[in-house]
Amino acid sequence: MLWGNSSCRLRTQIVMTFEPVVQTIVPGKVAHFEMGGVSFEIVSDGAVVSGPPEKTHPHADAGYVNKILDNHGLPHDRLDFAANILIAESHGSRTMFDAGLGPVSNPPAWGRAAGDAFHNMRIGSIHAPDRIALTHAHGEHIGGLIDEIGNPRFPNAEVYAPFEEHAFWTDPIRTGPAWAFDCGLARTVFSAVDKNLKLFASDPGLKDSGVTAIPTPGHTITHTAYRIKTEAGDVLHFGDAARHSILNVVYPEWKFVGDFDPVQCVCTRLRLFEDAVRTGALVFSYHWPFPGIGHL
Ligand SMILES: [Zn+2]
Prior knowledge:
Bound molecules: zinc ion
Number of strands: 14
Strand content: 25-35%
CATH topology: Metallo-beta-lactamase, Chain A
Helix content: 10-25%
CATH class: Alpha Beta
Number of domains: 1
Low-confidence stretches: 1-6, 11-15
Order of helices and strands: EEEEHHEEHEHEHHEEEEHHEE
CATH architecture: 4-Layer Sandwich
Structural class: alpha/beta
Radius of gyration: 18 Å
């Protein structure tokens, strides 16, 4: 399928599919792989549910969406999203990207299918991170920063977040039901990890681990992707810039109602996809089927 749109077009038109890279998987849904001197682990936090597609992707042709879902044996009444946490260890430092839902009570519509990361880390013998870099501050990405009694889950880890992302979700001006879950949780979590919080404008200062931030606004106002450099090429962490491994890849220009700025998110997605294809980077996406890593 060729893609691109009038306002935000790829310089190169590409036939796009996502080819997962299957790695050694141990019980509890933990995957490991080595690449160019960097050791990677992926921990499953479980899954979250949204949909149905006609509500999440209202601008897409519903009949065509359902046909695509049929071709992949997927239901029409909901969209299932995995939740995957990437950990990269290089030069003796372990950087974890996002933290999962944690022990918090999520909105009922999600079911209770996420929040498994810490359990999976324990049974998979995964060590605690030294640093945690956040892609954005939605609840299923930051709730795992705290434990059942509200203390930091990883008390020795520095927590890196974009300055404006932190400011947006903790701003007391945001009240009411629409903001209650994400803003309430952000205030609780950021307050709990305040001592270790490192807010950054554009550069988190993690280059010593080969990690750089890529501003990727759209899903949230300062959503951030990350590039992890290895001696054998890069890994590109998309965060939530491309939530669905099929719909967002076949038609990246389809807008998702859960994005803060859906049009901007489309442009961001196209830019990231082009980067990945041009550089041959391995891509990782938080919500793609576990382990969420492969090639475009
Ligand atoms: Zn998400």
